[in-house]
Amino acid sequence: MNAVTIVIGSICILMIAYRLYGTFMAVKVLKLNDAQKTPAHELEDGKDYVPTNRWVTFGHHFAAIAAAGPLVGPILAAQFGYLPGLLWLLIGAVIGGAVHDAVVLFASMRQKGQSLSEVAKKELGPVAGFCTGLAMLFIITITMAGLSMVVLHALEKNPWGTFAVGITIPIAMGVGIYHKKTGNLKAASTVGFILILIAVFSGPYIQGTALGDFLTLDIKTLSIILPVYAFFAAALPVWLLLAPRDYLSSFMKIGVFIALIVGVFFVNPAIPFPAVTEFIHGGGPILAGPVWPFISITIACGAISGFHAFVGSGTTPKMLDRWSDIKVVGFGAMLVECLVGIMALISATALHPGDYFAINSTPEVFKTLGMNVTALPQLSQEIGLNLEGRTGGAVTLAVGMTYIFTEIPWFSHLSSYFFQFVIMFEAVFILTAIDAGTRVSRYLIQDFFGEFYKPLKRVDWLPGSIFASALACFMWGYLLFSGDIGSVWALFGVSNQLMASIGLIIGATVILRIADKRSYMLTCLIPLAYLYVTVNYAGYWMVKNVYLNEAAAGYSILNATLSIIMLILGLIIMIAAIQKWTQLWRTPQAELAAKANLTQNI
């Protein structure tokens, strides 16, 4: 198998799915009608509700949903071989992820752009709404820990990478200040991007210096620094750090993956990985569980991801200019993210299996696998960094992309620069997600605890903002400090896919209300049935075999408690949904359609 075959075949499948299934969802199932005003027009305020060009909205939505998940998940899942990950990415994205994102976006827009917990309250009742809000708080907390874990192993004892990533903070703040004072976005962007490139190329000169020694940090130190950084990122004004970092990182993400696709076509690397490995039945050094259910838990973003529901019921529904834009922004952006995940999978499986497992396993575990490294010693020497035992996925992606790029003759001597640039590229994107996610977590905390103490609901109340930001950072910071990538990423996967199940539940309810044919509800019920069974079995397996198993490396009473609470919340929401579906099914379809049209026209 070679990479170009995979890329061409995948692009064709995704384009056909968008043209046929995307159109079916938009025209037949959701019945998108541009004659009706969107919330952006109806509630236009120049701040949150702003009608925006579909391609600008697409860029915002894609940058928000495509964080570390489609980069890391496929790399960790490569443990099972290239075929399980490739199949789940394509099938999961077309049947599940694109449908989920489109229906969540549609459901939120029907309720004037409100959050998913508010939509659940109106569609399923107050109990389901409360459970959805609580589940969202748990899930966003676990998500932050899972994403941050990836950064730790990339920057561990890597002063070049730590410097390149750290310097982006003042650069982003400088871009934000300059743009706010002058309004010159083009100059701010150009200067910011040039400064980032200078930071990467300056890295070798700090190694061996006092600054380099200061930035040579271990995992525990980094796991304290990241939550502290996130506290300030969540508390500072959006224009000062979060927005300029988003903007700069979007350029990098698009540019890097266009370059990777071009590089794959130029080099056409062979895929030395087998289609499936011996670890499909479990016992792998990266993920202990079997290929099912863990392929669908490990690869979330890129296939189907509940994290997208935070975006699809957050900023995006307040920006869409026309209802038909849901097809481009909701359905289309998910398919593009699927392609990002496939490119990450190719980067990992383009490595020799021995090199891949040496990076993603501890040295002690790797010795038990009976494998030998091939190109890794040479790559370590060229990059100037010991690559063995750097688990988490980020280093594997950087090594894989470096391996592909340096096969091009002009770039053969730039291994170290490519590697550190990709590390910075990944870390900046993950920090962007941490910035936004911690801020969302802060809002959720203020909204949740504001029910008991009213001033907390005011997002402009400084003491409340500080309290909520600190609590959010402490919660995911504790998970980060005490966890490992195998257990935390599995916890993230279970919680994230449970959130996707909740999104599909709400989508199925809305479709049952509005669709001309009740059979259209199957567009949500089919992926929901698979995902709900998968996430519950994965949660049970992790609790039994890892979190409550004292002999397991991921033994954690806290993780077991969180998993059980989330699965119970999911069960309550599912029971409420079945009761609501039964009630709606007994209502004549004409009556439901009339009520749906009346509600949407109000």
TrEMBL record:
One of its GO terms (cellular component) is plasma membrane. It is a multi-pass membrane protein. It comes from the Bacteria. The keyword S-adenosyl-L-methionine does not apply. It is found in: Cell membrane. Residues 2-535 form the CstA N-terminal domain. One of its GO terms (biological process) is cellular response to starvation. Belongs to the peptide transporter carbon starvation (CstA) (TC 2.A.114) family. This is Carbon starvation protein.
